[in-house]
Amino acid sequence: MVKKSKTISKKEKSTRREKENKKLDELKQRIEDLTPEEYKTYTNFNELPLTADLLKGLERSGFVKLTEIQKLAIPECLKSHDILAAAKTGSGKTLSFLIPVVEKLIFESWSDMDGLGALIITPTRELAVQIYEVLLKIGKFTQLSAGLVIGGKDYAFEKDRVGRVNILIGTPGRLLQHMDESATLQTNNLQMLVLDEADRILDMGFRKTLDAILGQLPATRQTLLFSATQTKSVGDLARLSMIEPKYINANLANGGKGGEEMSLPESLEQSYVVVPLNEKLSLLWSFIKSHLKAKILVFVSSSKQVHFIYEIFRKLQPGIPLMKLHGRQKQKARLETSVKFTQSKNCCLFATDVVARGLDFPAIDWVIQLDCPEDVPTYIHRVGRCARFGRQGKSMLMLMPSEEEGFVSQLSSKNVEVKKLNIKGSKKKNIQPQIQSLCFNSAELKYLGQKAFISYCKSVIIQKNKAVFKIDELPLDLFASSLGLPGMPKLKLPKKTSDLTDEARLKLKEKKNENRKLKSLDNANDNGEIEDKDKKVRTKYDKMFERKNQDVLSEHYMKLNAELKGDEESEDDDDFLKVKRRVDEVKNSELPELEINTSKRAMKKALSRKLTAMGSEKGAKLVFDDEGKSHPVYELDDEETFLKQEPEKVKSEFLLAEREKMTMQDEVDKGVAKDKRAEKKRKRKELERHMNGDYSDDSEDEGPFVATLGTPQNSDDENDEEIPDLVNDLEVSDSESAEDGPDKKKQKKWFESDKYKERDQEDEGILEIEQPETIDDLEALTLKLME
């Protein structure tokens, strides 16, 4: 039975709409009447003046209790004030701005026809994904639509849908790209702008991108800034066009306007150790080996260091799953790593500061900072990955002797107290010999070590805080040895670190955070086409040897580069045998053979003559020029020489020769196919005779030769091969078996032939037989002798 759909009249619709509007008006009035004394006493979400759909989504998602920042920020945001909020890491800042965003659009009766209503900007892709997932949970029962735009995803897919969402979450680079290129994205009607981790977004690395985004947004919007460490710079606030912003600091017990003190969760145990630069990797290895049942997050200063440490530790196999996460990875790999680390119980993740902002990884036991953070706010965000929402957590910071005094005093000035730990010598294990052995046997690991060394030195040079970061006092030669390098790579360092101005540091950070897509558009011509200066295919080896700062590599890489490129300008005769002489020197020396890291397919092709010949063009005639380079014949012929050869005649001769080759090849192919059919027919006949019990050989006097269409007329069967007793993969049809059926006379066995009987009569008991060839022949001979 089909259930009839209930029809709603226009009067009922209008009545329902009036009731909904009345409820919204009551909620708005409750929000306006809220006072700080009242909402500071709230403990649950259902006490706030929120719509029923949003409260249902919060309850289904498991959000019941209000945190300190949520209690203070949500009511002020609902009143349409501009907010500048700071709170401890892991205190629930995400819901503090998502709830007002959803409520604002519900109160305005927002629909798809109204376009983009709220824009949320985050500094990292992982944080944007996390906010998007929370928004989908709490807004499940509302009629609003949300979108996520981040780098590394399909831009064309986002472009078709970005104009139809009400709430848009993204990173600065991809958002600016959509604003510049996507015609469907309109921001004229924007109601709210949210900057999560605002101090990081307002950093000078994102300054130009953020300025370009703000220039396309209406000035009448509501702006919310949230972070664990907040800025109150007048210049930053003026750029954001904030009108009388309210300062909310949940770090202070009274919620005052200070904002300078930085506090961390009470359940976090903070400590630091003093260790020389060249002993950091050994200490990290010893720590991981003694905490195999823990979940560890290790911070380093650059992505190249992450890559090198991950590969080295993976070779040494500490006994715990290892992961890596940095900004140079593909987006798919970054998301997969984030999910695996979230779901894992015992593992170690090596990461850069891309993980330090806002990400909620559950149940992290230890946060290890291998390199000193650039400032106190970065330290706060790093250690804030553990001890979230009241859970226990520990952190350990590794400081060099030159960094201890300056950074510890800076932490104390911000009311962040850390205790010093002393590591027992018996607990340390030196892994420098193992690292040197791995780098000696693997050129790839050695090259990664060089890049890690250079990237660390650069990260120290560009830091502002010269009271902590002192490149001149670092033992760089010992640090290179700890990375397994035979010597310190050549690195151009400024005579004085103070020579690097703030403007130079600004350019370096902007270059690091720039959007590659927007940079490519700057090189477009008048027709909008991106000019490609170098259109040839470039491999990773080409990129490696075409680097501008090649002088920072070690000497043997420079020599390898020179050998590959060749000295074309030299005209000495001695250079002609240069390569041969070097090969002989290597063969005669006692040096170990170099291990070439290549695929099995490439090795097989290089060692196989057949595969090598298949890869080259057969019959290609080459001509060598004066420099010894090979060329096809037609490349060195000029136009006059070509016309003298009578092109039509050359063409006809070429076609005739090719036609003769094809004819000969067709005959060969037909002969091969003919032989195969004959062999198949012969084996089928032999199988039929074998199955019928006839083991005699064919001969010319046993009957007329029968020719069958499609098979060769072969009368000589004396050299036919033996057929095995059982052949399972050949089938005989009924028509073929009928030709050799019961009408065919059964032949005699070899030992029943009349010639043997005549020999018996003549030789009086002397039996002459041929050599038996099969088991049946041997059994027949045995029976004959036993008579």
TrEMBL record:
<dbReference type="InterPro" id="IPR001650">
    <property type="entry name" value="Helicase_C-like"/>
</dbReference>
<dbReference type="GO" id="GO:0016787">
    <property type="term" value="F:hydrolase activity"/>
</dbReference>
<dbReference type="GO" id="GO:0005730">
    <property type="term" value="C:nucleolus"/>
</dbReference>
<dbReference type="InterPro" id="IPR014001">
    <property type="entry name" value="Helicase_ATP-bd"/>
</dbReference>
<keyword id="KW-0378">Hydrolase</keyword>
<feature type="domain" description="Helicase ATP-binding">
    <location>
        <begin position="74"/>
        <end position="248"/>
    </location>
</feature>
<dbReference type="GO" id="GO:0005524">
    <property type="term" value="F:ATP binding"/>
</dbReference>
<dbReference type="GO" id="GO:0003723">
    <property type="term" value="F:RNA binding"/>
</dbReference>
<keyword id="KW-0347">Helicase</keyword>
<feature type="region of interest" description="Disordered">
    <location>
        <begin position="1"/>
        <end position="24"/>
    </location>
</feature>
<dbReference type="InterPro" id="IPR014014">
    <property type="entry name" value="RNA_helicase_DEAD_Q_motif"/>
</dbReference>
<feature type="domain" description="Helicase C-terminal">
    <location>
        <begin position="267"/>
        <end position="439"/>
    </location>
</feature>
<keyword id="KW-0694">RNA-binding</keyword>
<feature type="region of interest" description="Disordered">
    <location>
        <begin position="654"/>
        <end position="767"/>
    </location>
</feature>
<dbReference type="Pfam" id="PF13959">
    <property type="entry name" value="CTE_SPB4"/>
</dbReference>
<feature type="compositionally biased region" description="Basic and acidic residues">
    <location>
        <begin position="741"/>
        <end position="760"/>
    </location>
</feature>
<keyword id="KW-0690">Ribosome biogenesis</keyword>
<keyword id="KW-0547">Nucleotide-binding</keyword>
<comment type="similarity">
    <text>Belongs to the DEAD box helicase family.</text>
</comment>
<feature type="compositionally biased region" description="Basic and acidic residues">
    <location>
        <begin position="9"/>
        <end position="24"/>
    </location>
</feature>
<dbReference type="InterPro" id="IPR027417">
    <property type="entry name" value="P-loop_NTPase"/>
</dbReference>
<keyword id="KW-0175">Coiled coil</keyword>
<dbReference type="Pfam" id="PF00270">
    <property type="entry name" value="DEAD"/>
</dbReference>
<feature type="domain" description="DEAD-box RNA helicase Q">
    <location>
        <begin position="43"/>
        <end position="71"/>
    </location>
</feature>
<keyword id="KW-0698">rRNA processing</keyword>
<dbReference type="InterPro" id="IPR025313">
    <property type="entry name" value="SPB4-like_CTE"/>
</dbReference>
<feature type="coiled-coil region">
    <location>
        <begin position="501"/>
        <end position="531"/>
    </location>
</feature>
<dbReference type="InterPro" id="IPR011545">
    <property type="entry name" value="DEAD/DEAH_box_helicase_dom"/>
</dbReference>
<dbReference type="Pfam" id="PF00271">
    <property type="entry name" value="Helicase_C"/>
</dbReference>
<keyword id="KW-0539">Nucleus</keyword>
<protein>
    <recommendedName>
        <fullName>ATP-dependent RNA helicase</fullName>
        <ecNumber>3.6.4.13</ecNumber>
    </recommendedName>
</protein>
<keyword id="KW-0067">ATP-binding</keyword>
<dbReference type="GO" id="GO:0003724">
    <property type="term" value="F:RNA helicase activity"/>
</dbReference>
<feature type="compositionally biased region" description="Acidic residues">
    <location>
        <begin position="715"/>
        <end position="724"/>
    </location>
</feature>
<comment type="function">
    <text>RNA helicase.</text>
</comment>
<feature type="short sequence motif" description="Q motif">
    <location>
        <begin position="43"/>
        <end position="71"/>
    </location>
</feature>
<feature type="compositionally biased region" description="Basic and acidic residues">
    <location>
        <begin position="654"/>
        <end position="678"/>
    </location>
</feature>
<dbReference type="GO" id="GO:0006364">
    <property type="term" value="P:rRNA processing"/>
</dbReference>
<dbReference type="InterPro" id="IPR000629">
    <property type="entry name" value="RNA-helicase_DEAD-box_CS"/>
</dbReference>
<feature type="compositionally biased region" description="Acidic residues">
    <location>
        <begin position="731"/>
        <end position="740"/>
    </location>
</feature>
